[in-house]
Amino acid sequence: MLDNEISDNKISDSEAVETKNSSPEQTVLLGLDYGVKKMGMALGNTVTQDARPFDILVMNNGQPADWDNLLGIIDTWKIGRVVVGLPLNMDGSSSMIAKRAHKFARRLAHRLMEQRIHVPVQLFDERLTSVEAREMAWELGLIKNERDPIDDISACLLLQSYLANPEHAEDIATYKAE
């Protein structure tokens, strides 16, 4: 969720050890809401099953203006998986921007390999996340103007959808663009 919630539940030390030993491996996710001029970024967590807006990256005609910054974020935050939004048409067909997102994801995977950063890159359908993000941002008072950026919120919604349905993601290596 976008709101921070604090739980007052307390557990004993023995319960904490038991929980720690039986809990699944945590993976930190980076969600990218691809765009030609800017790209929204969100961080997610497979244990807590939540995501939060992180940042908006400047893009130069569909490529990061600073690749080193993006790769540094992935390395510094110990990202375990990158999820790139795939903006398909409403009928599920590939749009021009979806083809560019796919190309970007392939380049990202290649650059990660070059840097010896072993992180899988997946594509995930992101239809209507920008519309939903804008509506949510208005309702929560996060934006004051319809031109205010919501790309990081869109990336957050993308990751939340991914966390709910990870089986719908496609690895960049196996994705077939139209």
Name some characteristics of this structure.
disordered N terminus; 24% strand; 5 helices
Could you explain how this protein is built, in words?
With 178 residues, this protein is of the alpha/beta class. Helices cover 37% and strands 24% of the residues. It has helices at residues 13-22, 67-76, 96-114, 129-140, 151-164, and strands at 28-33, 38-45, 50-60, 63-64, 79-86, 121-125, 170-171. The protein has a seven-stranded mixed sheet, sandwiched between helices. The relative contact order is 0.19.
Quick take:
This protein is of the alpha/beta class. It contains five helices and seven strands.
Task: List the topology elements.
Blueprint: H1 13-22, E1 28-33, E2 38-45, E3 50-60, E4 63-64, H2 67-76, E5 79-86, H3 96-114, E6 121-125, H4 129-140, H5 151-164, E7 170-171
Parallel strand pairs: 1-5, 5-6
Antiparallel strand pairs: 1-2, 2-3, 3-4, 6-7
Helix pairs in contact: 4-5
